[in-house]
Design a protein that fits this description.
single chain; 7 helices
Amino acid sequence: MKKIVLITGATSGIGKATARLLAQSGYRLILTGRREDRLQQMKEEMESLGAECRTLCYDVRSYEACSKALESLPEDWQAIDVLLNNAGKAKGFDPIQEGQLTHWEEMIDTNLKGLLYMTRLISPGMVERHSGHIVNIASTAGKEVYPNGNVYCATKFGVDALTQAMRIDLFKHNIRVSQVAPGHVEETEFAEVRFDGDKERAKIYQDFNPLTSRDVAETILFIITRPPHVNIQDVLMMGTQQASSNFIDRSGRQWVD
C-alpha cells in the first residue's frame, strides 16, 4: 500500500511544490487549505500526475474544523503515514511597540496552535500503529531573530522547541519527528501575506538569489524517504547569498549552474 501524506497549507509555496514532488514519487496525498478553488485545482493536477488525492478545506486555527475534516476521511485514508505541518505565515513587520494584535494572534494561531492541533489529532494513530513521521516546517527565524521579526520569530522558535519535545515524546513509539528550517524562499506568498497584499513591498528578492520552493520540497522528500532506522532531525538551509537571518549579499542575483 502506498504511503499517505497529509500536507497542511498545500495550495501555495512549499506545500504546493512538495505535493507536486510527492505525487510524482508515488504517494497518496491529502491536501488541506482554506481555499476550495485552489484545492480543486491541486487535486486535478495531482491526479494528472498519477497520484491518488483527497482534499480537505478548513482553517488549521480551529481545532473543531481540524477534527471534523479528519473525521470526514474514508476509513482507507485514515492511517496517515506522514504529517507535514507546513501551514504558517508572517504578518506585519513592525517593532514590538507598534505591532498589531491581530497580526500577532494570526501568527500564533496558525504557526503554533495549528501545528499542535494537527499533531494532537494525527499522532495517536501513529502511536497505535507504532509507525509514522511528522515533519514541521520551521524557519531560520526560529534559529536567529532579526529586526521587526519579534512575534514571527517567537512562533518559529516555538516550532523548533516543539519539534524537539515531540521527538522525545514519540521516539519510543517508533515515530520520527523532523523539521526543515529554510531561509528566504521565493515562489511563495510569504512576503505578500506579510505585507497585507502590498505587491511592491513584497518585492524582497530582487537583488539576491534565495531558495526556491522546489529546493525545500526536495529536502522534505529526502527526509521522508530515508530508511526506517534513519531520522533526519533538523535541516537548516539557505541560499548561497544568505549567510544568516541578518546577513544577505544583495549585490545582485548570482545564478550558479
